[in-house]
Amino acid sequence: MGYRFEFDPVNKILLLRLDGRQTEESLAACYRAIREYSTATDANAGIWDFSSITEFAVSGEFIRQLARQEPAMPDATRRPRILVIPRTAVFGLGRMFQIAGEHSRPLLQVVRTMDEAFAALGVQSPHFEALA
After folding, report:
1. What CATH number should be reported for the domain holding residue 15?
2. Which domain holds residue 73?
3. Which uninterrupted H or E stretch holds 131?
């Protein structure tokens, strides 16, 4: 599948872990799944972890198109989302997404590590459980 969801019920954080090769098609499917899982869990925040991807075959134009869409997670002006992207080339695309969508996702941040993501959310010891 290329991604899986986990949830911390205490802090109400939805965690998306992407892995392997990511394409525009897989990222579009993932974007749709974020809405489903964030609504089902009533998550207050989201972390999208790109640490385990091996290839990111996604164009800058696709990133801009995605940023123009309605945010995948509802209430983007009240619910923070953190993109964890350690690889420099992909980090740049993450920043492009952040800048292109900042009017509809003002709380979106792009960081390099999970520790930075937890610090940004003010969480010290989250406990994530796999979602089916």
Report:
1. 3.30.750.24
2. 3-130
3. none
